[in-house]
Amino acid sequence: MKFGYAKLIALTICGSLMLSACSGGKSETGTNADGKTTITWLNIMHTASPPTDTVLDKIEELTNADIQFSWIPDASKEERLNTSLASGSLADIVSLTILENSSVRNALKAGVFWEVGPYLDEFPNLKGISQDMRNSASIEGKLYGIPMQKQVARNGVIIRKDWLDRLGLPVPKTTAELMQVAKAFTEQDPDGNGVKDTTGFMDRSDLVFGAFKTLGSYFGTPSSWAVSEDGKVTPEFESEGYIQAMDFMKELYDNGYINQDFAVTAKKDQQEGFAQGKAGIYVGALFDSKGLLNLAKGVQDDMELVMVNDITSTGNESDRAIWSTSNGVGGLLAFPKSEVKDEAELKRVLKFMDDLMSEEIYTLMTYGIKDVHYSLDANNGATIIDTKLWEQEVQPFSSSRPNENGYSIQDADPLRIESTRLIEENTKYAVLNPMYSLESPTFSEQGSELQKIITDATYKYILGKTDLNGFRDAVNTWRSSGGDKIIAEYEAAYQAVQGSK
Fold first, then answer.
1. Could you read off the pLDDT of 193-236 as tens digits, one per residue?
2. Strand order in the sheet with 199-201
């Protein structure tokens, strides 16, 4: 594997975080002796080790580039990016996956990185980035990098279809029907073992990626924030939908239709419990279905799953909604002016990014090389041939893909095909977070701490340790402790962006 950027390597090796060998220093963006464009890339690594050169060589061949990666482990990305920004130890491309980080936002606003919005339409693949995506990834109305395009809204409900069939129940389409399924799975022995040992829901201690936020969507809760036509901003937990979602969860808990320890259950334990047949309803990412079925092999071999993405509280199609806190933005691939010296160099790097968005390179970065890492069926469905080899040579590139949506190749597994279809369908009903690209200094500094007030009050309400008045007292505490200031700052930021249009 090639590693560039000697300065950063030195910094990260000192912290025992950088990996294996490196090249002899950072090359300027331009053409090397082989006629290739040299690209240095400060990137985040989500795997245990960096990829070997097998796939990288193919990518370099297709992009006519010499790519020199510097990898930062995901667990230490915030500290390392802060250090790199402070020292000016950057690269031609910097993967910024923590846009809420104050150092990152300050660097973006200070003009450290190129504004790329005016250039996107010059490139065939970059041109296809939607205006919604561009807006969501912008900082104060300006786009300082290529948005890392993720699935906009991936969540839904996964249900044991074999249990529905055994009890003669239809796939639920409303929250009331979902409650009835949870009741039946708890009380009517859906696994037929003659023992009352199942619950409806298997959930975990996560109000965002667990069941709560998705259920909130079905009751009309906004995604984190709502903004009225006159620019007034309100947090999601002051909406009626949020209260209804708490009531729904409270009813599940009070009646035993959900694992009683959900508030302290880890994701791993949640998924293992579901795979072991302890419950029949799982709310989370729809693509989790494949992993759940794999976990169930040898334990629940009769398991059949159905994925549902069209539940509403009213039964009206027009009320379909699903939350999207990050609006499908996984971060920015940004280009520092200190490394990318002028417009000509910027366009060379943008051409490289445009190439990465091609179907051929997406396939390399996702599945690898045909007949080496994966096989392909007549329906353009890919199946990994050698999982260990794929993990070594392909998987680390997954965090480098500028776009993950809209390609013809797909996982051949039927559950993955269906989950991909439903997730794409979700995009039409996604409720975006209107404050995602805006800044509140108070939120950046105190947001996480203040959120604990609401999270604790939400759990207390669901678990019967406080009532609605107690929850509203917590909201008032949130407001007086900094929430009102956050709202005022977001309103000012929103008005400023609206005024600039």
1. 999 999 999 999 999 999 999 999 999 999 999 999 999 999 99
2. 199-201, 279-285, 155-160, 305-308
